[in-house]
Amino acid sequence: MKNFLFLLLFLVSALSPSFSAVSLPVKVERIQPITEVVYITNTGKKYHKTGCRYLKSSKVKTTKAEAIAAGYTACKVCKP
What we know:
This protein is an alpha+beta fold. The chain is built from two helices and four strands, in the order αβββαβ. The protein has a domain at 37-80. The chain has helices at residues 2-15, 64-69; strands at 37-40, 46-48, 60-63, 73-74. Strands 3-1-2-4 form a four-stranded mixed β-sheet. The longest helix is centred in the first third of the chain and has 14 residues, at 2-15. The model has no long low-confidence stretch (mean pLDDT 80). It comes from Mesonia sediminis.
């Protein structure tokens, strides 16, 4: 009789994904964000989007993560 009940529960859980006799932990992996390209200047301490009005004299391409690691902060005008 126990084997029959076990088999019945197994078949129902296999046929219906919403029904589960046993709850298993689910491992959720964090998705890495897409690398965001920003620009810094030779003299400033801010990082900018490509069309920012403060990128007139110099424009050095980098990633947002690298700019933050180097001590740059976001421009309050273009808000990258």
